[in-house]
């Protein structure tokens, strides 16, 4: 039986082998590092739409079928971010980069190995943790891992936008922020951003006017202007003014971006925010949607110089803040019925009260929006969830 020391040697070997390999060779390197343990591992990456766990091809082995996220034991390991053991002795271990869910590792253990043994689980968790960091880093250097995550081609607008976004989930000991966008292969004008500096979290959700590549270009300029200004450390009015100026300097056709820009003080719970023509965020407290944050209003960004006066609210520990674009509430089914804010709030209450991790809450919410629209919606739909809670942050760790 492999000891803790043997697993650690495998982790060290994997790290030393991984420095100078191409992304497509990562499965091969995993096999080489685990061979002394008698362990075989197969990597699965969740697809962009988070419906299937898709295997990454390994040399010399047949490629398994994709696994459903919603109706399989491996899917439970992924959604709960928890190790699961199958009746056949296999271990399914979540692969994350920090707290960003990437997929799973399937470990087939040698005869006689106990999948419930602490040393086995700790070793498998250490290998999966390293694989998560390696995968996230190797994504930048080739297309093999990107192809493994896709069930169909992306539009140019979606390809551009996804390259600009931060990871979908980020957490520290005291908070977690997570996001989701649809339609993921065709998304255009929606985007989000965040940055943590000291005890201040800056958060943004944006929606560029129009559809497709023109909307993506508009939102991309707004996103770049936001980051350039934020890195000079101004306040919310200066961030809004920088986006205004950038959009007006590039276009004279009246295009604009709606947005919520916010600053959250993690020590005091003070949230300052500006709403530039965007749907009002929803505050959830004790599992209930208690109010919409309707203050801080100004014109959409890029239309004209505007006075920007942030509003302020104090959050309580355990509060959740849900931000969304109008593609969520205005998604219509084939009968013309909108998804609506009340339905969104009801589902948000139900899922946040279930104790699920923030990214899983959003995955289920956006699936509900997609199911309601049943392919009839032409607008982007995006959700961002901020949870100010150490327990919420712990739920996104494997």
Name some characteristics of this structure:
Beta-Lactamase; alpha+beta; Phosphatase 2c, domain 1; globular; six-stranded antiparallel beta sheet
The poorly predicted ranges are none
Number of helices: 12
What's the β-strand tally? 18
H-E string:
HHEEEHEEEHHHEEEEHHEEEEEEEHHHEH
Strands side by side in the biggest sheet? 3-2-1-6-5-4
Mean pLDDT reading: 93
How would you summarize the topology of this molecule?
Layout: H1 4-18, H2 26-34, E1 40-46, E2 52-55, E3 67-68, H3 73-80, E4 84-85, E5 91-97, E6 100-108, H4 118-138, H5 144-148, H6 156-164, E7 169-171, E8 176-182, E9 190-197, E10 200-208, H7 212-230, H8 236-250, E11 257-265, E12 270-276, E13 282-285, E14 288-292, E15 297-298, E16 311-314, E17 320-324, H9 326-329, H10 341-352, H11 358-373, E18 381-387, H12 390-394
Parallel strand pairs: 12-15
Antiparallel strand pairs: 1-2, 1-6, 2-3, 4-5, 5-6, 7-8, 8-18, 9-10, 10-11, 11-12, 12-16, 13-14, 13-17, 17-18
Helix pairs in contact: 1-2, 1-4, 6-7, 7-8, 10-11
Question: What this model shows, in words?
Answer:
This protein has 398 residues and is of the alpha+beta class. It has 2 domains: 4-148, 2-Layer Sandwich (Beta-Lactamase); 156-394, Phosphatase 2c, domain 1, CATH 3.60.40. Helix content is 35%, strand content 25%.
């Amino acid at each position: 039986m492999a000891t803790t020391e043997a697993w650690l040697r495998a982790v060290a070997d994997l790290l030393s082998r991984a420095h100078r390999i191409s992304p497509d060779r990562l499965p091969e390197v995993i096999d080489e590092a685990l061979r002394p343990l008698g362990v075989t591992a197969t990597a699965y990456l969740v697809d962009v739409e988070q419906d299937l766990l898709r295997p990454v091809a390994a040399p010399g082995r047949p490629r398994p079928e994709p696994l459903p996220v919603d109706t399989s034991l491996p899917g439970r390991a992924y959604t709960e971010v928890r190790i699961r053991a199958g009746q056949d002795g296999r271990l399914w271990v979540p692969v994350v980069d920090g707290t960003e869910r990437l997929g799973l590792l399937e470990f087939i253990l040698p005869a006689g190995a106990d999948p419930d043994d602490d040393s086995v689980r700790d070793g498998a968790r250490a290998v999966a943790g390293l694989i998560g960091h390696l995968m996230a880093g190797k994504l930048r250097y080739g297309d093999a891992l990107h192809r493994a995550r896709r069930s169909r081609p992306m539009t140019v607008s979606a390809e551009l936008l996804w390259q600009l976004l931060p990871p979908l989930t980020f957490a520290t000991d005291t908070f977690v922020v997570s996001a989701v966008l649809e339609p993921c292969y065709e998304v255009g004008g929606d985007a989000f951003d965040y940055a943590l500096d000291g005890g201040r979290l800056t958060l943004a959700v944006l929606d560029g006017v129009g559809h497709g590549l023109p909307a993506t270009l508009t939102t991309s300029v707004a996103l770049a202007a936001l980051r350039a200004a934020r890195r000079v450390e101004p306040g919310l009015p200066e961030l809004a003014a920088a986006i205004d100026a950038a959009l007006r300097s590039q276009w004279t056709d009246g295009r604009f971006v709606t947005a919520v820009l916010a600053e959250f003080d993690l020590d005091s719970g003070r949230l300052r925010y500006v709403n530039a023509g965007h749907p009002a965020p929803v505050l959830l407290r004790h599992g209930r949607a208690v109010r919409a944050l309707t203050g801080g209003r100004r014109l959409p960004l890029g239309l004209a110089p505007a006075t920007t006066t942030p509003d302020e609210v104090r959050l309580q520990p355990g509060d959740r803040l849900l931000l969304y674009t109008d593609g969520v509430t205005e998604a219509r089914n084939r009968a013309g019925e909108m998804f609506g804010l009340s339905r969104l709030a009801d589902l948000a209450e139900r899922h946040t009260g279930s104790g699920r991790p923030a990214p899983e809450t959003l995955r289920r919410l956006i699936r509900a929006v997609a199911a309601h629209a049943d392919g009839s919606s032409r607008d982007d739909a995006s959700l961002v969830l901020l949870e100010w809670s150490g327990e919420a942050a712990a739920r996104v760790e494997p």
